[in-house]
Amino acid sequence: MSEPFPRAPDFQLVDSKGYPVTLSTLRGHTNVVLVLNRGLACPFCRRHLAQLRRDMDAFDARHAVILIIDPDRPEQIQEHWERDGLPFPGFADTENHVASLFQQKVDMYGKGRLPSIILLDREGRIRFRHDGASAPDIPSSETLLAELDRINQDPPR
Hints:
Number of domains: 1
Number of strands: 7
Radius of gyration: 15 Å
Oligomer: single chain
CATH class: Alpha Beta
């Protein structure tokens, strides 16, 4: 019998401040908003990061941490995070390890990764996933917050 909500694959990356983070260490503690970005050259992704920053209190209120997985080099991520004052960790996935684990889609015309947003409940189970069909196809904070409300009200059995 398969589980209705599969457990997310585990990974460890180093964040923009040099701290290693392992996904499984968050289990039992918090919901996770996993953002698989296209990269910092993408204006839609940068706009999304700014929106997440503005809505950070709402995500905190729903017991959710935001993790941004980005294909850029660590020094690029660190510079962007410092310049924009982003309050959530950013991780370099230059080898596409996490992108592959989560089967992030790639534009068939060679324009790179497509955005993916994955919400994990406190037990590390995938409860919501949005795979963008194009660069601007990123769900709004309102959509993500509503999904987090649903996750918090309906824990897995």
